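Lecture notes, unit on protein representations.

Consider one protein chain, 295 amino acids long.
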Amino acid sequence: MTSEPIGFLGLGTMGAAMAANLARAGFAVTVWNRTPGRAPELEALGVTRADTPADVATTVDSLVVCVSDTPDVEGVLFGATGVAEGAREGQLVIDCSTISPSATRDFARRLAERGVQLVDAPVSGGSEGAQKATLTIFCGGEADAVERARPILAAIGKTITHVGPSGAGQAVKAVNQVILAGTYLGVAEGIVLALKSGLDVAQVVEALGGGAAQSWVLANRSERMRVNDYPLGFKVALHRKDLGIALEMAREMGADLPVAELAADFETDLVAKGHADEDMSALARVIRERSGLPS
């Protein structure tokens, strides 16, 4: 256990659970959220609140950021009351958001000018992983900064991998989201085919789980696709944002990602139809609709 003071900026579905796990691990956590009063359950864990990111930065040596998109991270770090306003030499910022790799490299450079190190540490595992502290974490940055971040990340995740220099963590997360897009679409098509064939879907999933088609998505999201109900795990809108980052990377590097492009189109349609806050397994809605099933 440790009583090391640490800051946490961003208390969304993921961030609130991650901050709670840091407090449970013994860190003295000070939090900030754009909307005050978010995650009131944190008070029972001894978490304190600050009015601005700059206020958090003045009281800690290390802080974690977990917000939605690249402009949000830039605002938290460099806005009028951002981290940079309260930062001092020797501080460590760990960004668990999923954002642009190129922007991450720029943020790292700007923070380094103030003597602050940045580790990009996007996470995978959804809300379940955040709650259970079993997230997979991809780290980019200088080796010494990543090693300094490990005890903090160990309180929120299970697998922590240093994948390269600044921005590399975000690049690996983009690869992760591209692979997930194909997996979700494949499972959705399989479940719809099973339904249309009159098969016992639970039996099909159990049988497939012992073979090459086994996946986390098959095991944990196929039932949602069968019953056409998609409670929040990882929002459609956030995955669509992540695919936008991945597709921009692909354009810059000359890679063709037709499956990711298709998934992005489907998710754009789902957002337009009011499904932005559903779990991304709602991709099955599109396959069900095209196949004449309730969607």
